[in-house]
Amino acid sequence: MKKNYRIKLIAISGILLLGLISGGCDRQQKSQSPAPVAEVSVVTVKPQQVVLTTELPGRTSAYLVAEIRPQVSGLIQKRLFTEGSYVKAGQMLYRIDPAPFQAVLDNANASLGRAEANLPAIRSRAERFQELLADKAVSQQDYDDAAAALKQAEADVQYWKAMVETARINLEYTRIIAPISGRIGISTVTVGALVTAHQPAALATIQQLDPIYVDVPQSTAELLRLQRRLEEGRLKYEAASQNKVRLILEDGTEYLWEGVLQFRDVSVDPSTGSVILRVIFPNPKGILLPGMFVRAVLKEGADKQALLIPQQAVSRDPKGNPVALIVDTDGKVQQRILTVDRTIGDKWLVSSGIAQGDRVILEGMQRVRPGTSVKVVPFDEGQNDVTKPENTAQPAAKSN
């Protein structure tokens, strides 16, 4: 009995031992099997032409501004415009009481008439004395007195003619007219107010708003950077379209009309270290008003060899440097430190760190490390196309 029990115990122990040995072999075989290769999606970097732009803040200002001031003193008799309305050049705005100026004009006309009436008699007397002087019938002194009286009478006529013209001009100045066409603002005086000639306070202000100016400050550092890129040939200046400027309003909408860059100021503001760019925009609907804050999108130039990669392909290392992972020719992952210039849409414009033909990893970056082998699978470029050289879209760009 005991002998059978021992035989059964030995048999069971052998079976268990064989099971343990088999399990260990299986685990060893499993541990020695190669790990699966990670799959990553990549895009191949290809140069393309893009037009680089810079977005800068600016403020609008009127194309023409005229402050209305009286040129003669008097009482305001009438106001002939509606505040905030559009007025035309030559339209009468105010009327100063003309009665005193009309009286002065009438007095000057009367004095001119008296001087002109005396002139023929004095001229005839001087001419007779000249004839008699030849016959020794009058003395030289009598002739000199008659000639002097003639010259004085002629001078009196010229004087009163000038006084008549002055009085007429002053009477005309009682009609205060608009020197330019535009929108007129608030009137600072009412009917019956006393105004003085050339007073410092304007009666009203007219502003011509179509077209309208946009003044944009540009830092000298940005200006020097742009000039250096042009000199190095990295940007190409295209005069035909370079001066075109787009405008973004305060609510984020794009203005309907493009503007034209007129000039860049020749002096630098020492307090801000910037120069002023003046852009002129059409304003037929009066959307732009003086003093509005806007953003101008200016073209820097065309970069025909721009390298763009999607923003999702760029991360940051512990030092904050932008980095990207690429797959080299051996199918291994390599890390590249990038120098990025700016964003263009949903892509980074890369200045250095990658080259044409590099395969940049877009998906699967979390599963790989530099030096590991990976399997490259196609990436759906319909959603993120950076490989087409003919892509010449011109999205707004922001400086990095």
Offer a quick outline of the entry:
With 400 residues, this protein is of the alpha+beta class.
Describe what this molecule looks like in 3D.
By secondary structure, this protein is of the alpha+beta class. It contains five helices and 22 strands. It has helices at residues 2-32, 99-134, 140-173, 220-231, 239-242; strands at residues 38-44, 48-68, 74-79, 86-87, 92-96, 175-177, 182-184, 194-195, 204-219, 244-248, 259-264, 274-281, 293-306, 308-310, 315-316, 322-327, 333-337, 339-344, 347-352, 359-363, 374-377, 397-399. Strands 1, 15, 16, 17, 20 and 21 form a six-stranded mixed beta sheet that branches. Strand 18 (339-344) and strand 19 (347-352) form a beta hairpin. Helix 2 runs antiparallel to helix 3. It is elongated, with a radius of gyration of 45 Å. It starts with a helix and ends with a strand. The model is unreliable at 383-400 (pLDDT under 50).
Keywords:
400 residues, alpha+beta, 6-stranded antiparallel barrel, 22 strands, disordered C terminus
Radius of gyration: 45 Å
Order of helices and strands: HEEEEEHHEEEEHHEEEEEEEEEEEEE
Shape: elongated
| Tally of DSSP β-strands | 22
Compute the separation of the termini in Å: 92 Å
Secondary structure: helix percent? 25-40%
Provide a count of the helices: 5
Q: Estimate what percentage of residues fall within beta strands.
A: 25-35%
The major sheet is characterized as:
6 strands, mixed
Mean pLDDT: 82
The low-confidence runs, each spanning 5 or more residues with pLDDT under 50, are 383-400
Structural class: alpha+beta
